DNA sequence: TAGATTGTTAATCGATTAACAATC
DNA sequence: TAGATTGTTAATCGATTAACAATC
């Protein structure tokens, strides 16, 4: 079997499958594509094709082995080897992400934040450290951090982005509503709440006619 | 011209265009599709086709009138008539969304939050009110709220969803990583951080081979 | 007129769905 | 064997890209 690049739409569904399979009642040791499709409101064939990419081998009449499927999904999504990341911008959103407990569930370990507001940079016991932005480059390089999360206002996002790139970051998760210019070697994943809300609005509007 | 339903991918790009056009330097009174495409890293034809949907009429050799384009985008995205919304779950994420100042920029007005944690439900001066979940139905109905935002843990999301539906909510913006079951009349828009991060990871991995 | 730009039609690509053979 | 389920091949749909005519 040739290692195919997995389609983007498939990648988006894999974490959803994993979440669902993990939440299954304990006694279930196997699960069928049809059951997953029903539970998640998807087409059966989509699920089977997606799971085929994961190379989880299903047994006719039984389905997929739960433990095996979980493992295969976690492996493919890279949930085993933790990605160390830093957040730039420790305002409300940045802080919420910094202290969110659920990220280790999907292989993301946010080790620190950076902010220029001195009021934020004192270390509180039990919480993760917040450093001044001036130390970003030094610390990222020293710790070998490869993922940066941007939660600063739009006006500062490009400058922060440039600093992250200079610090050797390879992937940027961008919550600021601007298009970031980066070298070809760096990947930007935009998370734009306005976009997401616009999709909801548009579907609501369409429904109302 | 027949009123076509706008494609989903187009809807996702419209807020990005709007954001970009708004941020243009003051002296610019017109903008070409080519310039937008270059700035946002998109194909020119995509931009022209998208803008055609918005029915902004561009002039050859000049481009689109900035003011007209802004207005048309805002109108189509429904940024003029505010959507009143409530948040259920006033933890870190819910609270960050509740107090986020940028939502009115895209027609979303979060008027209150609900949470069962009594420690959160005291009104602080200058901040938006947080009520106990028991009052959700009463208040939503009285205020005619049509959009609900779910930021509770996964285990409680379906129950909260059911209460929102019972209160007459038509659209749900769901930040909990579960598939919600709703009647056909209700629209759910999922915002799943695990999904977004998985896409980043997968693109990073691909890059590294 | 020449050149830049829009808007549209046709071709390509990727993702979804339908049909069906293979297997336990 | 019969039935349920997987996995794959072909058909359809939607979105992107390429080519080009229309217009100021």
What attributes does this structure have?
homodimer; alpha/beta; six-stranded parallel sheet; two-stranded antiparallel sheet; 15% strand; DNA-binding
What integer is the average pLDDT of chain A? Answer: 93
Q: Report strand % of chain A.
A: 5-15%
Main pleated sheet of chain A: 6 strands, parallel
Quaternary structure annotation: homodimer
> Radius of gyration of chain A in whole Å, from Cα?
20 Å
The residue ranges of chain A in which pLDDT falls below 50 over 5 or more consecutive positions are: none
Give the helices and strands, then pairings:
2 copies of one chain form a homodimer.
Chain A: H1 8-22, E1 30-31, H2 33-40, H3 44-53, E2 64-65, H4 66-77, E3 83-88, H5 92-99, E4 108-114, E5 130-131, H6 136-143, E6 147-150, H7 154-166, E7 171-174, E8 187-190, H8 193-208
Parallel strand pairs in A: 3-4, 3-6, 4-5, 6-7, 7-8
Antiparallel strand pairs in A: 1-2
Helix pairs in contact in A: 1-4, 2-3
Chain A binds a DNA duplex (24 and 24 nucleotides) through residues 7-10, 32-34, 43, 45-46, 48-49, 51-52, 57-64.
